[in-house]
Structure formats: C-alpha cells, structure tokens
Amino acid sequence: MSFARPLKTWTKGHNSPVSEADIAVDELLRRRLREAAPQFGWLSEESPDDPARLTMRRLWIVDPIDGTRAFIGGGADWSISAALVEDGRPTLAAILAPASDEMFAAVTGEGATCNGHAIHATQGDALADARIGGPQRRIERLAVLEPRICAMPKCRSLALRLAQVASGALDSALVGPNSRDWDLAGADLIVHESGGTLTTMSGKALVYNRPDPIHGALVAAGRARHRALIALLGGHREFC
User: Fold this and answer.
1) What's the burial of 91, exposed, middle or buried (CB within 10 Å: 0-12/13-18/19+)?
2) Long-range contacts of 49-57 (CB under 8 A, 24+ apart)
3) Where along the chain do its domains lie?
4) Which of these CATH numbers, 3.30.540.10, 3.30.200.100, 3.40.50.150, 3.90.79.10, describes 9-119?
5) How do beta strands 196-200 and 58-66 pair?
6) Is the fold of 9-119 the same as that of 131-239?
7) pLDDT tens digits for the chain (240 residues)?
8) Which of 40, 131, 182, 227 lies most in the core, judged by the most C-beta atoms within 10 Å?
9) What is the CA radius of gyration of the chain?
C-alpha cells in the first residue's frame, strides 16, 4: 500500500502504534453511527472512554484500524471492525478488510456473510491437519500437544483472524491474553453466526461493555473442533 503523502504515526501506551488514519476512521464512524443512533453508547480504541457507556444497554464498539502495524507497513492483514452490543453481547457486526476487498457481516439469528455470500466455519472435531492461526508461541505449545496441526501465518488483525475462522479459511484461531472489546466484538458475532464458537479457555462466552474491557486467552473454531481444543488445552496453565 502506498500513501499520497507521508502518513503521520506515533505511539501510545505499551508502545502501540497509531496513525492519523486511525483517528480519521474513528471520527468518520463515530459521526455516521452516532447520527444513525444517537441514543447508543460508544467504545472505540481511539476515543476517550466515557464511563456513561456502562449505563447503556446498547452501544457501538469499534476498532477503526485493527492491525495498525500491518496498515502502516503496507501489509494486507488489517481491518475495520464495528459491532452493536446489547446487554453485553453483539447483535450486529461488520468487519471490512480493504486490502482483500472483503466485507464480513452478521446479524443475530441471520447467519454470517462475506461480500453478501453465506459463510460457515469448518465442521468436524479433528485436530490433525487443522489450519490454526495465532501467536507463534501459542501455536508452538499447541504443536507439542498435537504435532499434526497445520500452523498458519499469524494475521496481525485479530478481528480478521477470527473472521477467517468464520469463512473457513482457518479451522481455528488462538488468541493471547489482553485483547480488548474492540478487537473482538464484531468477530465474535460473525464467528457464532457462521456456526463456530469463540470463548475463554474454560468455554465461557465473552461479555462486553464491562468497566475493564480486557479479555484473557481465547479460542475460536467450529463447534465440534472448539470442544476438542477446550478439552485438549483447558487443563494447561500456559494456555489460560
């Protein structure tokens, strides 16, 4: 990817990169979504956190650019993610991957789509030859327990990595601790509506719009394979 002029970038807490594009997308989404539903709350990676969101049943949860390092470096593995959350769970979601021209979307009870076509997580419980993406150390630890897995390159956009589980491009994805609501909310619904599951390593569903939006280690896969992974990994502290 090339830019018409040099892109302004800087770092924020924990050496996380941010660019002027992140801020511009955040402002655009905030304006459009809040205009459509001004009564809903707002939580975004690039907006100051307003504690008033905690009093609202419905709010938008947005990541203006998920995978900013990839975006700045000209990679293709970045995305824009937005979800409408109601009573702690997403009910409407969209993830746009501009570099690959893919739009993933889901509505509760209506299935998941990519560019308007229905998508489905891969079925079956086999871990042998399963295509699994995630942080390298976690994949290496999994390979010790199940050497026959097929380790896939890490997608730097977590939302897009999970959407690839929903589309069947990956059979499973591992997520390290410290992901945030905005990384997950949109992908969570898309994975579930595709016939998959995204949970904690103990099998619990995620709850959004809490005072602290940080999550622990997670796993996503089609339902049968998800159960097999939870059974394999749940008792190992290094995966929790």
Assistant:
1) middle
2) 51/211, 53/209, 54/209, 54/210, 54/211, 56/209, 57/86, 57/87
3) 9-119, 131-239
4) 3.30.540.10
5) unpaired
6) no
7) 555 457 899 998 778 899 999 999 999 999 999 999 999 999 999 999 999 999 999 999 999 999 999 999 999 999 999 999 999 999 999 999 999 999 999 999 999 999 999 999 999 999 999 999 999 999 999 999 999 999 999 999 999 999 999 999 999 999 999 999 999 999 999 999 999 999 999 999 999 999 999 999 999 999 999 999 999 998 788 887
8) 182
9) 17
Decide if domain 131-239 falls under CATH 3.40.190.80. Answer: yes
Paired tokens of 233:
């990994």
How high is the pLDDT of residue 238? 81
Tokens describing residue 16: 């996380």
